[in-house]
Structure formats: C-alpha cells, structure tokens
Amino acid sequence: GAVVSQHPSWVICKSGTSVKIECRSLDFQATTMFWYRQFPKQSLMLMATSNEGSKATYEQGVEKDKFLINHASLTLSTLTVTSAHPEDSSFYICSARVWGQGASTDTQYFGPGTRLTVL
Amino acid sequence: AQSVTQPDIHITVSEGASLELRCNYSYGATPYLFWYVQSPGQGLQLLLKYFSGDTLVQGIKGFEAEFKRSQSSFNLRKPSVHWSDAAEYFCAVGPAHGGNNRKLIWGLGTSLAVNP
After folding, report:
1. Do A17 and A11 contact (CB within 8 A), yes or no?
2. Angle at B45 between CA B43 and CA B47, to 5 degrees
C-alpha cells in the first residue's frame, strides 16, 4: 500500500519549452502532496505544498509562475516547468501525505522521481 | 532555527558489521522524526518513524532508531549490514502537532557504502 508514481521518470527537452510531471497516489487519496527538488549529492529542497482543490503554497525563493502546480484530484498533482532553461535541470520528487486517525499515522510517501534535463 | 544535522557525509562499513548513522536536530516544538533511504534510481522509502511512546523504534529491513530527547538525537542503527543496504540515508523532522501541511526539514544525507 501507499504507492506513489511519477511520470515521466526522465525527460529531455529544449530550452524554452514546458514540461509537465505527474504525481499519482495509486492506492490512497492524498489531500496534500509535496514537490521537492534534489540536486546531485544533496538533500531534498521543498519547492511547494499542493493541496487538493486549492492553490499551492510555494517556498520562499521558488517562482510560482515558473513552476506551476495543479492538484486537481485527490490522487493527482502535476508540476509544470514553464519555459525551461538548463538551470532547471534537476531531479524532481513528489510525495503524498497519508494521515488518518491521529498524527501517528501521518507519513509522506515518495514517488520515484523525475530526471529533467534541459538542453 | 530549525535544522537537521547528519554529521557523517559518507560512511563505509564491511558487510556484516554493525552500523550507526547519526542524526541531530534543532526544533522548537515536539518533533516527529523519520529516517528514509534512497537507493540509486529509486524513490525515498520510509525506514521508520518516531512520534511518541517507546523511544526505541523498529523499522523495516532490520533497522532501528533511538530517540534521545536530552541529546536531540535520533540515530539509526543496524546490527549487521548487508551489501544491499548501500544507499543514501536521510533523517527528517516535522511537527508532531498541528499544521495541515506538516512540512519536513531534511538533513543533507549520509551516503553508505558497503564493502564485501
């Protein structure tokens, strides 16, 4: 249980194009999903928190017009990198939050990540 | 300031040896602590978590961690390491109470190599 998928697993695009990354919770509903960015040999950097049916909350320094997040359903959140540039090349990871009766069940489950390379 | 420190960037152990990965945190509220493992080409997998109760928590793959409030630590241990344990290990802390979004603060990770 608690499986999160991401699609695509890797993508190469030309500078100036837009890329959409999907994050799906396969066997549970997630009211909250998180988007992270991970640079080589570094930790995860939280980009934004995505809540179903409302606007995403972006971390300081993350351009919301650059990284568009849509959480249209309880099982799907998308991250669109608009007008991508080489500096946007990175590993993007999503997670979906599971929580039920009591905070002890509150856990984030992660997707396998998407490797974006912008030429 | 809230932070998570993993003092060891890289650790190498021999297969069969014991392992301890250190994690120290600075957090203003009651913490909720996690250890995740990231294998090459795979997503982060939850090893274990501590919310309350017994300070020694058992996780998957034979891992355990001990929460020591007085030392602000949550060290990960395994008595006998297997070659398949080679991976990146991340410690994270979040709020135990309140907050719909419950953001996690992450350590920089410890890279574990296992010698045969």
Report:
1. no
2. 160
SS3 call for B13: strand
Evaluate whether B61 touches B75 at the Cβ level (below 8 Å).
no
- Segment among A5-19, A58-72, A95-109, B71-85 with least mean pLDDT: A95-109
Which of A3, A37, A44 should one mutate to test binding to chain B, selecting the residue with the greatest count of B CBs within 10 A? A44
Report yes or no: A97 at the B interface, CB cutoff 8 Å: yes
H/E run at residue A13 = strand A10-13
Name the maximum alpha-carbon separation found in chain A: 46
Q: Cα separation of A43 and B23, whole Å?
A: 14
User: Per residue in A49-77, pLDDT tens?
Assistant: 988 888 899 999 999 999 999 988 889 99
Going from the C-alpha of A106 to that of each of A40, A75, B49, B102, the distances in angstroms are 28, 17, 10, 9
CA distance B41 to A87: 21
Smallest CA–CA separation between B95 and chain A, in Å?
10
Largest CA distance in chain B: 45
**What average pLDDT does range A35-43 have in this prediction?**
86
Q: Which of B48, B100, B101 to mutate to test the interface with A (most CBs of A within 10 A)?
A: B101
| Beta-bridge partners for A107 | A98
Neighboring chain A residues of B32 at a CB cutoff of 8 Å: 103, 106
Instruction: Give the gap in angstroms from C-alpha B78 to the nearest C-alpha of chain A.
Output: 22
Check if the beta carbon of residue B79 is closer than 8 Å to that of residue B62: yes
Provide the number of CB pairs (under 8 Å) joining chain A to chain B: 53
